[in-house]
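Project standup — Tuesday

K.O.: blocked on the structure for the chain from last sprint. Re-posting the sequence here as requested.
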Amino acid sequence: MTDRVVLAYSGGLDTTVAIPYLKKMTGGEVVAVSIDLGQGGEDMESVRQRALGAGAVEAVVVDAKDEFAEQYCLPTIKANGMYMKQYPLVSAISRPLIVKHLVEAAQEFGGTHVAHGCTGKGNDQVRFEVGFTDNNPDLKIIAPARDYAWTRDKAIAFAEENNVPIEQSASSPFSIDQNVWGRAIETGFLEDLWNPPTKDLYAYTEEPSLGQAPDEVIISFKAGAPVAIDGRPVTVLQAIEELNRRAGAQGVGRLDMVEDRLIGIKSREIYEAPGAVTLITAHEALEDVTVERELARYKRGIDAEWSNQVYDGLWFSPLKKSLDAFIESTQEHVTGDIRLVLHNGAIQINGRRSEESLYDFNLATYDTGDTFDQTLSKGFVALHGLSSKIANSRDRRFAK
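H.V.: unblocked you, prediction finished:
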């Protein structure tokens, strides 16, 4: 039986040239699979035709925008997913969805191999390959950029030698990955940590200092999921798209960070994720109102571990699945409205309301009508500090 390689196909230079290259290296056929995650830009039918023109025997486009929003972005909102408390997992949450569809395509088209375009320096090789082995360990994996030392200049040279039609040139120094959840930019002059980002790097956000009028928005949640904006019902995808526009117009969601990669190196990354950052900020504010103190305190640690698992390519791991179950159980009462102002690159929360709130005005107020019994506090404070008091007394007695 002829080998069939199912390729994660973006339509760019590297994956276009990978089609004839993989055919040459394996002697088999290539099936190109493109996933629409709301990245915008080129028409996906043009992408499909390019794959066929480069020699793919089959080319498939999967519209996965709603699936991505509902099954990958929404869990990230509920988990307040931020790697290193900063990065909203833009690329990390897209890889398991791509894996899922590549494995399904391999089953449908008789694929014997799966291939991706990742290098040996990044996290995505781990996310793809661990995902493949978790879902179908019988598939063989090919990573041309890593396994064959495939570089951009080699890709261009191979295209010219083999008459592969390509539109890209070597002029762009950046590596860019984007979807509806956000956009990631790296390499080029950004590799010098002292170089500031330039305006041309950004596509989802405007310059924060443009002087736009503030934009006040009300985001409504039900059980942790965004369900309305300014009173208008929305799907999760629609919520992300609208906030990408509105928060992006205010310069919200820009991030310049040095990231601890899974393989052990530090990497400078530029992100812009206006919708993601706005939704997570609003969700956290509603949790502050509706989640009990000890549960909220514990969940913050779970959220961090969930983000680590996802970043590290362990979306399908037993621990990640158990963390999902815990996080989902915390969202039962995360229902209500958050009012916020988007302006000059910042998000300001200025209103919270929920019928399931744990905030009790009569207990919180310092004015007439206060129902809090302050006589209980004296004994509480004494008992709360008792063990610390005893330990410090001992330490003073034995101080040297």
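K.O.: great, moving the ticket to review. Residues 4-172 form a domain with the Rossmann fold fold (CATH 3.40.50.620). The mean pLDDT is 93.
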